[in-house]
Every structure is written in structure tokens, then in C-alpha cells.
UniProtKB/TrEMBL annotation:
This protein's record includes keyword Electron transport: no
Transmembrane segments: 185-210, 217-233, 259-276, 288-309, 321-339, 351-370, 382-402
Source species: Emticicia aquatica
All copies of domain Signal transduction histidine kinase internal region, residue ranges: 421-501
Name of the protein this chain belongs to: 7TM diverse intracellular signalling
Amino acid sequence: MLLFILFIVLANNSAFSQINISTKLEKSGFLDCSSQSLLLVDSSAKIPLQAILQQPFSPIQQIKIPKSLESAYRYDFWLKFIIKNPTSDTLDLLFTTGLHQSTQLFQLHKNRLVKVSETNEKLLPNQRLFRSDDQYIPVRFLPNQVYVFFAKINDYPRVDFNIRPLLVSYQWENYHKVKAFYDEYVFLIAYGLIIPILFFVALFVIIFYLLDRQIYYLYYAFYTISIGLFNLWEYEHSPYTHLVFSYLTFLKFTGNSNIYVFLTHIFYFLFIFEFLELKKKSPTIATVFRSVIISLSAILLADIIILFVFKRLDWSTSIYWTFQDIFPFLNVGLLIMIFQTKGRIVRNIQIGSTFLMIGGFAGFMTHYTNNISFVLFRVDPSILFVVGTLMEIFFFSIAIGIRSYTIQKEQKSLYKSIMESELRMLRSQINPHFVFNSLNSIKSYILTHRSTEASEYLTDFSTLMRSILQYSKEQLISLCNELETTLLYVSLEQRRFNDDFKFIYQIEVGIDTDEIMIPPMLLQPYIENAIKHGLMNKEGVRTLTLSISKQITPSRQIIIIIDDNGIGREKASLLRKNTPKHQSMGMSINDERISLLGKTNDFLINIKIVDKKTSNQEAEGTKVIIRIPTE
């Protein structure tokens, strides 16, 4: 039976010979089976398994293995070889054909191919037959037995693609691995340091974003994450490191690093665009950056579709090599534009970008020209790229620190301005003119023996003063407290002017005034203006209306309307010009305070003043519309 099997196998090629193994091989060595193996290139990748036996095989040395993705990325490569164990020992060895995406090992048994085992880069670490290295298949050879093997190899035939069948001992593999560690530990340590540094910087910058809400923090975080993923992608192209990509194999073995390279460039350019405020400071350069970002994003999307939908690695690799040539020139061009901008912060960005560009170019040249065969790394590592990245992080961090310090300094200045504005508002509220008129009213009540009214007026006046002093210390108070103060103020003014104007107060049902927060003394300047300059200079019926309603769409707001039927702002302005030593500051200070609140707390209050006019364009009063966000 054995002779019959050998006759079938050897029928297609008389040069095919048997490979003998020995006990010595199991203990310390390896055996190259290339010279005694045959190869078949299945360009269709559709030959049925059992039909392989009838296909013509040729010696490996006589076949030029295609290494072009465009023509061979879907090929199957079949090896055929005979192994004999002439010893009386059971030999446990490791079989490999080299670094390939997958290798399936079949044994000829009763004139049929039976699968023995396989190795695959997409297998999880705990699914491998030999966990230490995904290129090896453990094979056991029983004493005095002959084995006819077929190996099916599927891979992307890159430039370094090679098929070399080997039988190695466990001891040899272990020695080879330990030797590789001593040869490559510098790269192992360098990448082991740069990856956690990048992700730590990303986390740190995200915290900055949560505190300051500056979008460039987010872009820089995504940039460092992208370049960290790129380094991790390289780091995990190793049989000995299992962190993230070993468990997300569809991201690890895409064949190239397009996704991570494009993401790195896109977020890097976005960061520069926002951090240097190019849109405001350099519109022309901003246009170039925006075009580059949009173009790279479109190509990235196309590459993702090509890889994961059409599964055409050859197209994706063409994009990869095209942009390997374009990126250096693109980066140099944009770096020249960055050098055209000025400033202390820009200087650090320029230095960091220069280091990054040099490191990236050095890393590309290392990958492009290196002929050294790495064991711990399957994507050529570059110390210069790691150094360039670290230097870029150092100088960019300085730039971000300076910008953060500048922002903090500006915020302190804004806070100081708010405090000064609050004090001026307080002074405008307790103005001598109002206090003098109120005391005169109390005096009039006393002289006319109206002690009860004088006592009530004095009580309300003191309550108003206490409220103003108390609330002036707060940045925000409830709408309920603001309305109490406002209504008390209107009540005093009505009594002071002997009820010469009518006051209407309306509030929509369902408004919870205790939950809505607004700046203190927001309404008083507009009500004072309406009474003092609009109504008191008018003849006839005088009406002041304060209405409060809510709005749900398109956003949740409280709408406060202060409406009077006075003489209007134009006539009031003319009268003020004729009043000696007149100085009205309440509304301007209020506007300044609201603007500062919007800048510091994103509390955007909208105030609109409408001049009401008749059909004949005659003034019939003023309407103030205040919109306060409630979410």
C-alpha cells in the first residue's frame, strides 16, 4: 500500500524525493525542505481539494512565485512533500512555510487528502495549536512511518513574499526566539514606551477638553490615539505580543496601515487648523488645510470601503504606495505654510512638526530599504520614528500648555471684569437720585402726618435695599427672587409718583420660577428706563406691562417682555440731552454684564428692544424682549 501511494505521488515528477528526519533534529536543529518539495500555483483558487492530486507540481526552484498584488493576491499556493521517520522514536516537530496569512496541512490517507491542522493569523491566541508563534504547526511523526503531506498557503504576495517549508524542533524555536529578543529588545522597549505615552497624552488632553471645551484639545487627543494605534498595529504584528489587535484581527491583518496613517494625518491637520486659528489669522492657508482635510477624509472612506466591503487589498495597497510618495511632499508643503505664521505658540508647533516629519520620513525609509529579517517584529520598526514622535509630543505639549495658560489668564481677566461690572451695576441700582427721591417721599408722608404710609414706604424701601445688597453678591439667582425685587421696586415707584401709571403683571401658568436662574437685577434697568424716561414724560394714560411666558420649540426658553406706552426712545433721548448732568449707565452696564456671562459660562441671554410705532410712524412706546435659556 505504501509503495502504491508513493507511486501516485511521484508520478508527476521524478525529481521528487523523500525527506528523512532523525532524533537529532528533534533535539536541537531545523531542516529546510525546500529542495525536496514541489509547488503548485492555483491562480484560480478554485481547484477542488481532492483534484489537487491530479495537478502537475514542479520543484520550488523552477517556479517564479508571483509577488504582485494586482495579479496574485487571490492565488492559492500548494506544497507537496514526503516525510519519513526512520527512527524507533516518536518525534514531535514544528512545521512552517514562513510568515503567511494561513497555512493548512493535509495528509494523504487512502488516496484522499485529510486535513491535519492549520495555522492562521486571524486565530485568537488561545485558538492556536502552537500558542507561541502563529506561523508554526505542531506535527507528530510516529516511528518508522512515511507521511505524504500537502500544504495549502493563502497569503497576499508582497515584495518579501516567500515560501520556505521548514521542520524545526521546539528547542530550536525557543533558542531562535530568545536570540531575537537580545537582538531586538531596543525596539521592543522603544515601542513599549511610546504607545502608553501616546495614550496617556490622549487621556490627559481629553480631560483638558472636558474642562475648557476647546475643540483643538479633542483633535489632538484623536491624533495621538491614531498615531498610538498605528504604533500598536506595528507592535502587535508579532507572535509574542497580544494586547488589542490580536483580539480584533479584522483590524490587525488588513495588509497595510492606511487607516491609521490617514487618521493620523487628518486629525493632525485639524489640530493645526484649529489651534493656530488659521481661519481667522490666515484665510488662504486655512483654505489649503481645509481642502487637504476633506480630500484625505474622502480617500480614507474609499479605502475603508475597498478593504472591508470589496476586500480588495490590491487596490488598497496601490493607495498606500501612492501616498507613501505623496505624503512627504504634502507634509513639507504644509510645514512651509505653518512657518509663515508667527507667534510664540506657533514656534513650538513648527519645531514639533519638523521633528515629526523627519521621524516619519526616516521610518518610511527604514521600512522601504531595510533587508533585515525581524523575528519579534513583522513590520520593520524605526527608532528614529519613535524619537521624532516623542519630540513632537514634547513641543506640542509646551504649545498646549502656553495656550492653556493664556486662556486661564483671559478667564481671570474676564472674571475680574464681571466683578467690576457687578459693582458698577450695584452702584447704578442704588443711585443717589433714586435714594434722594425715595427719602423725599418718606419726608412728605411725615410732614403731612401720614405716618402709616411713611412707615410702609420706609419698610418696603429698606427691604429693596437689603435685596439689592444680598443678590448683588450672586452671579445667578432664581427668577422668583428677581421678580420679588422687581415688583417691590415697581410698587415703590408707583407710590412715589402717586399711582400716575398703571402696572400690569402676567405670568404663564406652569412656569416654575424657583427653578429658573437668571442674573440678579436683570429687569430693573429696563423697568426704570420705561418709568422714568418713557411714562413720566407722557400725558394721559400710562401703562407698564411685565409678562412672562415659556417657549418649548425650537429650544426651551423663558420670554420676559417689558412693554410701556411711553414717548419712545427717540423723544426720551432728546429730553435727556437737554437735562444737565444726566448720566444713564444702567442699561449699558447690564449689556456688558450679559456679554461677559455669555463668554465665561455659555449662558446666552438674548435681549431685543423694539420701538413701537403707529401706522403713521409715530412713537407709541417701547417693548423689551428678554429670552433666557432654561437648558
